[in-house]
Automatic annotation (TrEMBL):
Classification of source organism: Bacteria, Pseudomonadati, Pseudomonadota, Betaproteobacteria, Burkholderiales
Family: Belongs to the ATPase B chain family.
Name listed for the protein in its UniProt record: ATP synthase subunit b
Localization annotation: Cell membrane; Endomembrane system
Topology in the lipid bilayer: Single-pass membrane protein
Highest taxon above the source species: Bacteria
GN (gene name): atpF
Length: 156
């Protein structure tokens, strides 16, 4: 056998095999590789998109959390203000009630004072009349008058 003929036959077989592979085997392999590359690219794009969405969601949740904290602080401040207003209203109402009670007590004390004065006037008038009767019944005597006036003074 001649090495040149064998080499030439091997080259012909190799070229036929290369043509067959390029024509029938290579296209399905390339399409499978392209499909796989596309899936990988889509997966990476989806991962990037998911990462971006996660960052956006984190930002939104942080913003919502800060808004909730601000709202809570605002509500607490409003509640404290309202509590102060209510406390002031209660204090004013209590002061008004105290003033009304004091005014009623003063009016009642004035009324009782007037009543006591009227009673005393009546008693004094009665004592004066009684003293005048006694003075008129007795004879006119300066010592007796002084004694009666001292007695009336003691009774008053």
């Amino acid at each position: 056998m001649n090495i040149n003929a064998t080499l030439f036959a091997q080259v012909v077989v190799f070229l036929i095999l290369a043509w067959f592979t390029m024509r029938f085997v290579w296209p399905p392999l390339i399409s499978a590789i392209d499909e796989r590359a596309k899936k990988i690219a889509d997966g990476l794009a989806a991962a990037d998109k998911g990462k971006a969405q996660l960052e956006a969601a984190n930002k939104r949740s942080n913003q919502a959390l800060s808004e909730a904290r601000e709202e809570g602080a605002k509500r607490i401040a409003d509640a404290e203000k309202r509590a102060q207003v209510v406390a002031t209203e209660i204090k004013q109402a209590a002061e008004g009630e105290a003033a009304r009670i004091i005014a009623n007590a003063k009016a009642e004390a004035d009324q009782q004072t007037r009543y006591a004065r009227e009673v005393l006037r009546g008693e004094v008038a009665g004592l004066v009349v009684k003293g005048a009767e006694q003075i008129l019944r007795r004879e006119i005597d300066a010592n007796a008058h002084a004694k009666l006036l001292a007695q009336l003074e003691a009774e008053l």
